[in-house]
Amino acid sequence: MSVLQRRALAEFVGTAFLVMAAVGSGVMASRLSPNDVGLQLLQSSIATGAALVALILALQPVSASFNPIVTLVERFLGMVDTRTAMGLIVAQFAGGLAGAILANLMFGLDAVTLSSHERAGTGLWLGEIIATAGLLLIIFGTLRSGRTERVAFAVGGYITAAYWFTSSTSFANPAVTVARTITDTVAGIAPASAPAFILAQLLGGAAGFFLIRALYPAVPALTAPAAADAADRKVLS
């Protein structure tokens, strides 16, 4: 198996488990606490944040972005080449869809059911911009400060918190957003609502990229020859 194939497999598996954590914990929380929305959010946020920490720690030696926005920023920073970035992004979207299907099946639901949960409004879109920009700041800021081993905990902690302080409950990930369109559960998002969420995430990604470049001007982007070495240090989000 080639390096790119191994990395794509890691992204597929990691994104699948991330979506299973988000969707599955949402279903479990809604069944255990059907009359307490706040408790449902607490249960789901803890489960998703904890899963992120575990997934990044386990898959970071191979590849652990699990997010097309993160991979695009890595491309613009010179950490991966275009071919690698495209391969990883395809794997992330495929993994997300697989994770949503598996989560549905685990809880006795149809494998694919389009979500009826509409999520729209300037407040939610602003929440996605902020959530995505903040996620990139956490990931690349921690990396560029030389604390690679702490990224998993930083990302898990941030996502757990962002469930609460962002109006959108912090999707911050196009692959996860698309995956959530095929589950008609509390974690779902209606297909008609997804494009605006993804646009907001792209805007947040651009903001996060420029923020990282402004905050860390003395740390050069990795060049193509260094990309292979960077593969073993890649992380989420």
From TrEMBL:
This is Aquaporin. Keywords: Membrane, Transmembrane, Transmembrane helix, Transport. The chain crosses the membrane at residues 12-30, 50-73, 85-103, 123-143, 150-166, 186-212. Pfam families: MIP. The lineage of its organism: Bacteria, Bacillati, Actinomycetota, Actinomycetes, Micrococcales. It comes from Arthrobacter methylotrophus. It comes from the Bacteria. Belongs to the MIP/aquaporin (TC 1.A.8) family. It is a multi-pass membrane protein. Gene3D superfamilies: Glycerol uptake facilitator protein (1.20.1080.10). InterPro entries: Aquaporin-like, Aquaporin_transptr, MIP. Its main location: membrane. It is found in: Membrane.
